[in-house]
Amino acid sequence: MSKKTFTEKEIKQLAANKYVKSVSSKGITYTDEFKGIFIAEKEKGKFARGIFEECGLDSKVLGIERIRSASKRWQKAYNVNGIDGLRDTRPGNSGRPREKELTLEGQNARLSAQINLLKAENELLKKIRFAERGLKK
To answer: Which of 63, 29, 28, 32 is nearest to 49 (CA)?
Structure first.
């Protein structure tokens, strides 16, 4: 992440751009469409700074280092995974993964295992209490 922070004025300017998904004082998220355009133009031989400016993103506001690091990151992702590597996967992968729907047999097996675990825990607690009583005497 770049050390440069955006002012309120810069945030408003960047948020108005159709290629910006979201922007805060510390960071910016670009649309998948922009990333695709960027890679296509980059392969034609254009410079990263020029591509950003052609798409209405001021390089003075963003900072050269932020443009350079985004370019490297997207180029690497594109080389490894193609156009799918440029997609923002955060919305689909946030939080705890959903558990798949279990059949009745699967639910029964899971609940049986949970009951057995709780029984074993109770037995262990009984032994600990019994041992503690023996030490107090």
So the answer is: 63
